[in-house]
């Protein structure tokens, strides 16, 4: 490849425009470019682009410098640099067109992974423009490609999961958002996320956990460090609310309910939230009992869930249909007999309760063993 005489001129011109802290990079760029050390040049460019001060210069830098030797670098890295440049464009439509051109450039069998990354990030701008139908089609196409790969670069997976989660957030499909957002966090180092992004993601995950009609186990989220980003903020009550739901603490739920005025989506779903906390309270009532003491009168459930007695059977039937518990209802005696309850993550008080039940079980085993031992002595005597 012949050295383009315009490249040194471009680098010299842009060097005079960038902040002083970035100017040394341009000396490195010119040197490595002239020596055709493409790998080292790629690394230097990645470091340059990672600097926030480089933002205003990235589009021209990509179009006039990187494009000249783009075939010499990893195409995934090319797309990554292109995405970084696109994010500097304030007009979302223009940014989308910028990425569409790059997407077509890597639309080849040998660069299908880079294509998926470019297509996914293009879909991100489609979301920003409100084009949900096209975004859905793009994500479905990317999903098929990902399923066909033997292995997937975590960066590509993270991009797909992030944009998918954002799509489901806009569509208010809470359970799907919850799933994809948690998977996205599993693909990235959360320390690389900005404080604002961590707080926003934690906020959205908390809301989706509360509002998802199929989510009754918050364990993975409760253990995730992302929730710590809410501590010390005006949204900390959301974290406390999650733990209240996890333990079925209706009193704590009622105490936190005044905060719902800050979130219209919670306020408008109050009926569903009350039913959910009652279901969680029911499972906690079952969980607190030993396995040989799980014939629970409706009156006890009514007391624990603060529901009228006549609504208890409906609640139990709902819990059975959702698979939160397994058992039978004795309508004559108004008793539910439970032989299984859905496992979940325990807080300290719940762990303490389990410890006490295990200690009681251990004592019962010792007593039974002692009785059997004494009877055995009588038999052989």
Describe this entry's structure for a reader.
The protein is mainly alpha-helical. Helices cover 66% and strands 4% of the residues. It is built from 19 helices and 3 strands. The chain has helices at residues 6-17, 20-34, 38-49, 58-64, 75-86, 92-105, 112-128, 132-148, 154-170, 174-187, 195-211, 219-222, 236-246, 250-256, 264-267, 270-287, 298-305, 312-322, 348-380, and strands spanning 295-297, 325-330, 335-341. A 3-stranded antiparallel beta sheet has the order 1-3-2. α5 runs antiparallel to α6 and α7 packs antiparallel against α8. The longest helix is centred in the last third of the chain and has 33 residues, at 348-380.
Categorize the overall geometry: elongated
- Structural class designation: mainly alpha
Largest sheet: 3 strands, antiparallel
- N-to-C series of helices and strands: HHHHHHHHHHHHHHHHEHHEEH
State the strand order across the main sheet.
1-3-2
Mean pLDDT: 93
Beta-strand proportion = under 5%
What would you call the quaternary organization? single chain
Number of helices: 19
Give the number of DSSP strands: 3
Weakly predicted, low-confidence segments: none
DSSP helix fraction = 55-70%
